[in-house]
């Protein structure tokens, strides 16, 4: 499997962007170009998204609830990333991409110099001791709807990403335009991504992830609420939180200048 990577002209420390569920590497707006003034920036399309081929394991976890299979699929993504990016770098993950970034830091700590976690959470679904997350029946209904009406479900998810954000309507239109600019994501890959969101719980591993980390959160985020980002910043040994007022799940689009400032300052430390 070969992953599609957009590379931006730039010099300095390598910085890789990993997108969220159902998205692709072109969804970051003008942020990569702005940061390429100071860093060597890349953005990847995960398997089955954008221009990247479908992984051979994509969809395997959708047949039964098996957290071990889900972790194996997540690890297969991380292993492929580790093969294609064989130098130490900063990994910036958005939403599901944040879980990929955390797992990469766990699995190959020597490759990940620093982390930037955007609208991320260590556990996407509510547990008895974890309420700052989506309830499992809602995610299950979303998964079932994906099989029944692929296009409508993706549109609903885009709307959730900007809900509550400043300039919500304009952001939604921009997201819709960007999403289809590389064609539709693969259905099996989407389902496997939902399985990762459903099954993966990285809370216990956080104290062992020692890379310097910047956690960026939208104060109005309803998909990964602010308390989840506060938890990440508190449990990761070398992390700090940047909460962006007026932003929802895509702060790099709604508040791009503030987002770039936070990332650039963190990487220049």
Characterization of the model:
This protein has 269 residues and is of the alpha/beta class. It contains 10 helices and 7 strands. It has a 7-stranded mixed beta sheet with strand order 1-3-2-4-5-6-7, with helices on both faces. Helix 3 links the parallel strand 4 and strand 5 (112-118). Helix 5 crosses helix 6. It is globular and about 45 Å long. The chain starts with a strand and ends with a helix. Mean pLDDT is 91; it is low at 58-65.
Please give the structural blueprint.
Elements: E1 5-7, E2 14-18, H1 31-35, E3 40-44, H2 67-84, E4 89-94, H3 96-107, E5 112-118, H4 136-148, H5 150-162, H6 168-179, H7 187-199, E6 213-218, H8 226-235, E7 239-244, H9 251-254, H10 256-268
Parallel strand pairs: 2-3, 2-4, 4-5, 5-6, 6-7
Antiparallel strand pairs: 1-3
Helix pairs in contact: 2-3, 2-7, 4-5, 4-7, 5-6
Short description:
By secondary structure, the protein is an alpha/beta fold. The chain is built from ten helices and seven strands.
Determine the mean pLDDT: 91
Largest sheet: 7 strands, mixed
Helix proportion range = 40-55%
Radius of gyration: 17 Å
Count the DSSP helices.
Answer: 10
Give descriptors for this structure.
269 residues, alpha/beta
């Amino acid at each position: 499997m070969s992953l599609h990577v957009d590379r931006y002209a730039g010099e300095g420390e390598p910085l890789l962007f990993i997108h969220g569920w159902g998205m692709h590497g072109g969804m970051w707006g003008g942020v990569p170009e702005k940061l390429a003034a100071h860093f060597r920036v890349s953005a990847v399309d995960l398997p089955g998204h954008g221009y990247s081929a479908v992984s051979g394991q994509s969809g395997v976890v959708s047949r039964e609830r098996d957290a071990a299979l889900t972790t194996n699929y997540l690890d297969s993504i991380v292993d492929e990333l580790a093969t294609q990016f064989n130098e130490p770098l900063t990994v910036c993950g958005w939403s599901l991409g944040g879980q990929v970034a955390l797992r990469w830091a766990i699995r190959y700590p020597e490759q990940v110099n620093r982390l930037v976690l955007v609208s991320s959470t260590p556990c996407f679904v509510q547990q008895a001791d974890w309420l700052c997350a989506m309830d499992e029946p809602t995610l299950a209904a979303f998964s079932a709807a994906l099989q029944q009406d692929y296009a409508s479900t993706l549109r609903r998810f885009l709307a959730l990403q900007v809900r509550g954000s400043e300039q919500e309507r304009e952001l939604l239109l921009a997201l819709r335009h960007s999403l289809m600019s590389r064609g539709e994501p693969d259905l099996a890959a989407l389902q496997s991504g939902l399985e990762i969101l459903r099954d993966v719980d990285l809370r216990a591993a956080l104290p062992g992830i020692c890379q310097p980390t910047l956690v960026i959160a939208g104060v109005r985020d309803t998909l990964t609420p602010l308390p989840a980002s506060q938890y990440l910043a508190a449990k990761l040994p070398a992390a700090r939180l940047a909460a962006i007022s007026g932003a929802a799940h895509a702060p790099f689009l709604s508040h791009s200048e503030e987002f770039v400032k936070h990332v650039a300052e963190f990487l220049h430390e």
